[in-house]
Specification:
Low-confidence stretches: none
Structural class: alpha/beta
CATH topology: UDP-N-acetylmuramoyl-L-alanine:D-glutamate ligase
CATH architecture: 3-Layer(aba) Sandwich
Distance between the termini: 27 Å
Mean pLDDT: 93
Number of helices: 8
CATH superfamily: Ribokinase
Largest sheet: 6 strands, mixed
Strand content: 15-25%
Radius of gyration: 17 Å
């Protein structure tokens, strides 16, 4: 059986993040990718110029089309900018009994542009967290979800992960890419365990789409039948290699993308 994953997210016209990064990641990792667009963005490596929202009814129609025909092994959720779209996606996941939901709570683009309306945070926590196999916030996102300051060390990362678990998700991956130090450390927090994943920090400005790529790589692993810790481990290794190879491609004049196809080009 062919492993299939679907990404429910916004489009990045620059190709480095969002739906485009997710589909590249699925393909690079040997998984067939389907997609549900929640928004169109006019963006490049320098920033987001405009956002065009997809009507909730059309988001639902896309979900019904995909899930009614494909045996979806995992779902990656990215940019959901409005409460109405969040509610629509949650209803669709419930309607189709979606499994292995990877929720990346995208709030701000790498350029600093806001992608999630402030009034949508409560809806995200209430409706989507209970449906998620894993939620993958970075340090600023975890702080925004909890209404506090970003974690300054691994002890605070763990504490924030445990607080986010209380919203109903089965696991939280607190990503330490925004921290400082020689290593980038992520903590996988579950109700009865904590796993630490560390990799050498890569000195590059080509970080556009890193979060999208990691969450979609986790979804790809789950779609292929890996357990959660294996999927996270393999995803972090893939993203680290994509960051290391990012200087081999020259895309745009701002924060360029990671090299999704570093193993093939």
């Amino acid at each position: 059986m062919t492993a299939i994953a679907v990404t429910i997210a916004g489009s990045d016209s620059g190709g480095g993040a969002g739906i485009q990064a997710d589909l590249k990641t699925f393909s690079a990792l040997g998984v067939y990718g389907a997609s549900v667009l929640t928004a169109l963005t006019a963006q490049n490596t320098r920033g987001v110029a405009a956002i065009h929202e997809v009507p909730p009814a059309f988001v639902a129609a896309q979900m019904d089309a995909v899930f009614s025909d494909f045996d979806v092994g995992a779902v990656k959720i990215g940019m959901l900018s409005r409460p109405e779209v969040i509610a629509t996606v949650a209803a669709g996941l419930d309607r189709h009994a979606a499994r292995n939901v990877v929720l990346d709570p995208v709030m701000v683009a790498s350029s600093g542009d806001r992608l999630l309306a402030a009034d949508a945070i409560e809806v995200l926590l209430r409706l989507l967290f209970p449906l998620a196999r894993i939620v993958t916030p970075n340090l600023p996102e975890a702080a925004a979800l909890l209404g506090g300051a970003p974690a300054r060390n691994e002890t605070e990362m763990l504490e924030q992960g445990e607080r986010l678990l209380a919203f109903g998700c089965r696991a939280v991956l607190i990503k330490g890419g925004h921290a400082h130090g020689a290593q980038s450390v992520d903590l996988l927090v579950e109700s009865a365990s904590v796993a630490r994943f560390a990799a050498d920090r890569i000195a590059t400005q080509n970080t556009h789409g890193t979060g999208c790529t990691l969450s979609s790589a986790i979804a790809a692993g789950l779609a292929k039948g890996l357990d959660l810790a294996e999927a996270v481990r393999d995803a972090k290794a893939y993203v680290t290699a994509a960051l290391q190879a990012s200087e081999r491609i020259k895309i745009g004049g701002g924060h360029g993308p990671v090299h999704h196809f570093h193993g093939w080009w």
